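To close the section, here is one more complete example, presented without commentary so you can practise reading it yourself. The ligand is iron/sulfur cluster.
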Amino acid sequence: MAENRNQDMTAPAIVTGYEDKFYYEIADNCVMCGACASGCPVQAIERADTQYVIHSSFCIDCGTCSVLCPTGAVHRTPYMRESISLNQIDMSKCYFNPGCALNLYKPDVPEKMLKLLQDHFSYVKFHNICCRHDPGLEAGSTIINNCAGCDRRFRSLYEGINTISYWEVIDSIPDLILPDHNGLRVSIHDSCGYRHKPQVHRAVRSLLAKMNIEIVEASFSGTESVCCGDNFYGAVPNEQVEKRIRMRADQFPCDNVVVYCIGCVRAMISGGKVPLYLPDLLLDRTGEPMPDTLDEYHSKLEEYIQNH
Ligand code: SF4
Ligand code: SF4
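Output:
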């Protein structure tokens, strides 16, 4: 069995393949206004004879073009394999994977999230191999993911591996006693990797309501969410990444912004907001400071990924 593989001296080789990203394409109701191309941070969109076109190999999945288009011509491409629903999980092959960024920045949290599942859902096993490495699980296994990027990679890179979000699972537990956050007012930033999953957005909002948290939605949220800016890292100079981060942060009506991705935590701090990481709210723990610069964050994470 593949549990505790991160204790191996040598991590398995990094897997590369076609990752099921949220790519976009442009339909023939394009009126050639050029708004999408002007807004694309990586110049992935160009004018062709009768409409604009997106070059998917350059696209960084930020979602900007889809919210700028006045005719709805920009739409997502079909994804390769969907995550599954609760009643499709084979509980004899069910695992929880916290993701590298959570392990790195909040090392006490994964065990607590696992315990919540084991105490109130079912006996879920721990799986702590990075999603960029072969998960080493038998076909038909399900990985419950905290991280949207892990969910996408496990599902699209490895044949026979099913995924579901941690949030849907936790929200499904009847009568689970959760912390009371006393009417705290927040906005929500929905992660890119879960942008096409309204079931995750519903579960997150349901959990917040159960924790007595009031939601003030931002203009772009749920399936219309746009990137916090972190996806831009490496594609454009850092100053532009930080500019996009501030632009996204400014779209939230509340200072408190609930996020469920560690990269989004860093981005919201950098954008002048107070990020409330969903696992911290769920476990009623205080979030720790995250002073890393963009370069520090990405280089620490890359090193962790290489070794796990
Ligand atoms: S999703 Fe972002 S990067 Fe991709 S084509 Fe649209 S604007 Fe450009
Ligand atoms: S924003 Fe929409 S209508 Fe305008 S060029 Fe882009 S795809 Fe066409």
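Once you have examined the tokens, check your reading against these statements. Residues 1-12 have pLDDT under 50 and may be disordered. The CA atoms of residues 85 and 260 lie 20 Å apart.
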